[in-house]
Every structure is written in structure tokens, then in C-alpha cells.
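Weekly puzzle thread! Below is a chain. First person to post its structure in C-alpha cell form gets bragging rights.
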Amino acid sequence: MATQEELFDAVDALLEGEPQLPPPAERARLREAAGVTQARLAAALKSTPQTVKNWENGRSEPRPPRLQAYLRLLDGWAERYPAPATDPGPAPAPAAVPEAFTGPAEQPAESARPAAAPDPLVKAPVEAAGPSAASRRPARKASALPAVDPQFPHGPLVVLDGDGSAYGVDGTVLDCPATTVAQLVEWTLAESGIGAPRLNRNGKDSDPLVVLTAEAAVRFGLPERLEGHEQRRSLRLADDHPVVKQVARAKWKLTQRGFGPWARIYRPAQTGQRQCVQLAVLSWDALDARSWPGVAEMEPAEVARVLGTYAARVITPCGSTATSGLELMTALRPPTRALKNENTGEWASAYNPGSLGSEPMDPAPPEAPTEHPAAQGWTGGFLDEEAFQWVRDPQLLTDEECLLPYAVGLDLNTAFLAASARLVVGLSAPDHFHRPAFNKKIPGSWLVDLSHIELDPRLPSPFTPSGQRPEGPAWYQTHTLAYAQELGYEVQPVEAFLRRETGAYLDPWHDRLKTAYADTLADLGVTPDLDDRQFLAAMEHHKQVDPAMAAVLAAIKATVKGGIGKLRERPQGRHYRDGERWPALERPTWRPDIRAAVISKARVNMHRKMANTARATGQYPLGVLSDCVVYASTGPSPLDFLPYTTSGKPLPGAFRLGTTPGLAKVEGVQEMAWAVDLMEKGLNPARHIKGGDAVTDEGE
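Winning reply:
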């Protein structure tokens, strides 16, 4: 039975009551007297401008612990800015403050609604949900995030948990009151304050991204996982799923890819204003573990940190890393720009110089995949510009090499990214030429016979992905033939498909990703000022320094390879038949010739480094797989075999260690006997040097 003292304490608590806020109009008066905007107040309280507006017009009330913080602020302002001594009558409505986002929730409250009645869609702050939610706050913020954009005060994205807590990129936690997907879209556009500004003045702002945890997916009526044969096969909900029908009833639309792991929900733009929200469902494998290692298992706040850092340095994710890589190209080189008609004074959309334009462009027949309509009936051969997959004939191994203790694999940092730097590609349709003079400055595809060229068999032929000597006339991209000229051989094309309009289309893409790669490595303790020994030591444990930033680094690398691969996306689905068009062909960024140019240059760069290393040291590779090369070594470190000058500097033109794209790091180390055994079985040690079976991932 309760004691008298306990009963009195309980009664005193009732008499004391909850902290009392001043009337809504007084809250607005105090804020305006202090010269503080609703957006600034919202940022201070880790809330949204719309929520503050709701507090000031009586549509909702703050809940603990924001309630106590807000009351403390208002009490302080009340001491500084007391109300007039005489009663001036009803307080005026708060002055309208321009807000970045507007929507139905911002309309004046209905007069019939009680002034202090809470909005049924406004949820208590996440801190009131108990320690489990509060404990998921990030211990630190992602470094080098940009200053808050006033149009998007809460960053590019949120990760929404099942209790309605929306975790932002900088530790902000918003309250999302939505209980349906349609309400979620409305809240995101009208109240959340998320999104990202355009990367080019001729482009468009990034759509806000809401990432759903498994619990959040269930809250909105979505399956925790895609189940059943049809859902797994198509990676989308059926058109008759209740959530899909609910979205349609609310007059929202889904893109052709439907409601899958990445769902884009939109309404057609009105007066130039986009209405589009991107959803990603974590439990539907929206974040592939190969590109985003470990992220799907992280707490929501840490997922927000990873994706927010990627969004700040690369682009707001909008699908797989490959899709994001392709989207980044367009965001940095928009297809159109606004152009003023000098005669009428009106603005119109016009081609943006240096871009790929807004219309798809068919490739030349030899540049197309064999299933492409342009290749149907073509018998003149096809371009085969792919990355190296070569292993040296074991009979060409010397006894000295076989007796060395170690095989060391070197991996070139983002080799495709390095190849895209200052790469001139075609911007117009190909023209057909017969017996043209070769010009290394003109991008295109050339039919040339290089079979007469005989090179050292201890090196792969630079002209074929297999590293084998060409057997007759074949189609080559410009960089491959330019390298043949560099080696001193004559190039006499029989035929060519060339492009008259050219440009370094990928330059801004290269520059942004190069900076993102370097900044993220620096976050992991790997900086350009390290010497080679320090660099190797830092790389040994960089992934353990910060798993979140290690995941960002992996995603950046996947963005490079996947983005280049998307330029030649093949048809998908069991019902496809050769000769039919497939959806990817309708993109201006479906450009297999640009992909071929990047891979050709990357392969040539690799061969040049191997040839220079051989000339300087007499050492030849055991095998090559894309951007990985394996050498026999006297020790377990690349310092034991890489060439250096007498002053201790890396030999120019050969492999060198470092953080820059195109420089090398250790891929793996094994015993030399292991490598010899693989080679005698016809297997490539470069494929297995890291342990397991490497994925070439040339971006198909």
C-alpha cells in the first residue's frame, strides 16, 4: 500500500502539471522579436520549418524533449522582449515567412479546429520513443559535408525507421507522421526539407531520397522482403498490390521500373516545379553488399551518414551504383540549356554544347552488341575492346622466377576513372569511311590488320583482351591503334566509322569522382603526403579505421566501373529476342563507343606500365586481370620489386604506389609455388591472388 508521502508526491505532480507554453501567437511574436526565422529555429531544435509553423498557428504542440527546450527558449525571449503592458486586443497572425517547401499541410488551420489540438499526423519526437531510438544517434558526423543549403536545410536524404524517426545526414532526427506511402511522399515534398541542389546550372535539383528500414517498410504496408517467384524475378511489387493501388488513387505515378528496391514516385511537373521522391527499401537489397559492404546491417543513423557522404561527394543515390554513375554523367553534363531568342525575347530549351544531347544515337554496326538492331545482317566483324584477361605461358617462366618465394598482386586504383581523364569521345553520329588515313585525334572504330606485329610473348599483346596476337584484320578503337603507332608500327585502316564532333564529355565526371575517391581515402588515414612505406602500412588497415567511410570508398569504386558499364547495357529478361530494341537504347547515354574508348585506354595504360617495368627491371607479369597484375618477388611487398631511381623516386612510366587514380596498391600476396601451380593448370593468378575468385566487373 502507498504511503502518505508517496500519495502527496503524486498529488503535487498533478498540481504542478506539464510545462505550459505561451499561446501560439505569442510564440510567433517572441521569435519575430528575436529576429529568428522559422527555418533557423527548426534547425536549432532538430526539427522542420513546417513543424515550427504548426506550433505557431496552433495546429500541433511540441513533445518532450523538444517541449522543454522550446519552453526554455521562449522563456528567455520573454525576459528580453516582454509583451506590451496594455492589452492591444487579439494578437495578429504571425508574419508570413517565405519557406523553401510548400504544400497542403501549410494551409491555414480550419477555424472549427480547436487552437491547441495536436495534428493527428504529427508524431512525438524520436527522443520520446525511449533509449533504443536515442542510442542509434551517430557517434560522429561524416567529414567534409558541405554547408547546409537553405533550400534543403536537412540535406539530401533521410533513413526512416519503423517508429517514424527520420535520420538525416548530420545527426538530425526528424519526426515523420506519415502512415501510408502517399502521405510519406507528401511529407517529404512539403515538410521534410530534404533534397540536393543541381550540380550544373543547366541541370535539375536531385530528388529527395527516403530510405526505408525493414520496420518502416512493414509500417507502410510493404512486405519486409520481396517474396514469391514473381516478385523475386521482376524485383518489383505486382501492379495489383494494395500499396501500388493506393499510390495510384492518390494521383501519384510510378516509373516503368515500378515499385521495387528503388522506386521513383512522381507527378508530372507543373510550372517547372518537379514533384518527385525516390524511395529505397533496405530489406529488398536496395544497397547491394558488393557495392555497399555492410551498410544494410548498419543502424539507421549510420546508414544516413554513409549515404549522405556519398551524396555530398558524388550524387544522391538513385538506384544501383551503376545507375548513379550514369546519372552523375547527365547531372554534370545536362543535355539541354535555356537559350534566349534574341528576336522574341523568349527562352527555349536548346542543345547544351559538350553533352550527349537529349536524343538516343545508334552506334556503328561494329560497335553494337550482336543482338542490337544495327548489327542484324552485319558480317564485317565487331569491336572487341575489353579489359585484359591474360596469363603467361608457364613454359616461359624461368627457373629463377619459379624459385622466388612470393607472388605479389598490384591493383590500379580506379583504372577506368584514370582512363576517362581528358578522354576525347564522339558527340555526333558515326560516318562511314573507306581507307582513311589514321588520325589518333579522331575518336571512332577502325578496321586494321595488326597480325604482323610480333611482341615479347612474356607480355600480353596490347591489341586483344586475351593478350594473344591478332589473327587478322579486326576493329579497334582509336587509343589501341595510337599505341601501335607509339610502339613504332604502321597503321593502315581499311575502313572506319568516325565522329566529326568531339569533346571530353567525361571530364567533369572524372574530376568529381577523383576528388571523392581522394577525400574518402583521406578520411581513412590514407593521404597523398605518405611515402610508399607509410602508404602500404595505412592501406593494410584502412577499412578498419571507419567501416562507414570504407563502404563509401567501395561505393565510389563501384560507381566508376558500373557507370562505364551502363554505357553498353545489354538486354535483360528471358523474353528478349535478338534484333529487338530494349529500354536502355532509348537513353542518350547508351554509348558503347564511349565505353570502348575508356577500356581501350585503360588496357593500353596497363600495358605501357608493364613494358616500362620490364625494360627497367627485366621482370615480366605472371598474369593480368583487368586492373590487377601479378609479379614474382623476392619479398612480400611491392617495394621488393618495383623500380626506383637512384634518388629513391619511383621510376617514371612504370608502376608506382599512391592514392591517385591509376596508381597502384597491393591486391594480395601468395606463395610463388601457389601461382606456378595455378598457371600450370591454365588458371590466372591475378584472378585468385586476393583469395577466392575475383570479379572482373568490366561494367556489363
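Puzzle host: Confirmed. Bonus trivia for everyone else. Residues 592-617 form the longest helix (26 residues).
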